Amino acid sequence: MIRSGTTSRLVRVALLGAMAALFMRFIHFPLFPPAPYLKYDPGDLPVVLAALTMGPVATLEVVVLKEVLALLFIGHPLGILMNTVVSMTMGGITALWMRNRPLTAVQTAFATGGAAVVCTAVMVPVNLFEVPFEFGTPRAAVAAMILPIYVPFNLIKGMLTAVLAVLLVRVRVVHLFLQPVPLQQKVSGQR
C-alpha cells in the first residue's frame, strides 16, 4: 500500500519534472545580445524548487524526469546531456546548501547564487567538450568564445534563475510544494 505522503511526493516530483520539461520546450528567448543563438529557458526553475523544498534525492528525480521528457520532445542527445550537467549542478548545489537551513529569501539567494557561479565554472569544460561535437565548431574557436561569450551567458542565465527562485520564495509560491495538506479524517458516523 502506498502511503499518502509517498503519493504526494511522487505527484510533486512528477509535476515539477513535467513543468521543467515544458518550460524547456516552449519558453526560450535570447538573453545575451552578443550571442543571440544562446537562449535562456526557465527549465531549471522547477529543479531549483525541488531543491529548495524536497531535498537532493527529489531534485535528482526531477532532473531525470525533465531530461527524459526533453529527449522525447526535443531530441539532440548531446544538448540534453549538457543541460543535465547544468540542472544537476544548479539543483544539487542548491539542495546541499539548503539542507537544514530555513527557507528564506536570503538563504535562497545564497544557495542559488552560489549554484549559478559553480554552474558557470562547470560549463567551461562542458562547452569545450560538447560544442565541437554537436555543432562542428573547431575547439580553438570554442576556446576563444569561453570568456567573452559562454561565461557571461551562463552567469546571467544562472543568476536569472536565482532571482526568479528568490521571488518565488518571497511571494511564498514555493511553499505550495513543501508539505502536502493532509486529507480531512473521517469522523465516526460521517460519510
Give an overview in words:
With 191 residues, this protein is mainly alpha-helical. It has one domain (7-177): Arp2/3 complex 21 kDa subunit ARPC3 (Orthogonal Bundle), CATH 1.10.1760.20. The protein has six helices and two strands. It has helices at 4-26, 44-53, 56-73, 77-98, 105-135, 139-170; strands spanning 29-30, 39-40. Helix 1 packs across helix 3 (56-73), helix 2 runs antiparallel to helix 3 and helix 3 (56-73) runs antiparallel to helix 4. The two termini are 23 Å apart.
List the keywords:
191 residues, mainly alpha, Arp2/3 complex 21 kDa subunit ARPC3, two-stranded antiparallel sheet, 2 strands
What is the topological layout?
Layout: H1 4-26, E1 29-30, E2 39-40, H2 44-53, H3 56-73, H4 77-98, H5 105-135, H6 139-170
Antiparallel strand pairs: 1-2
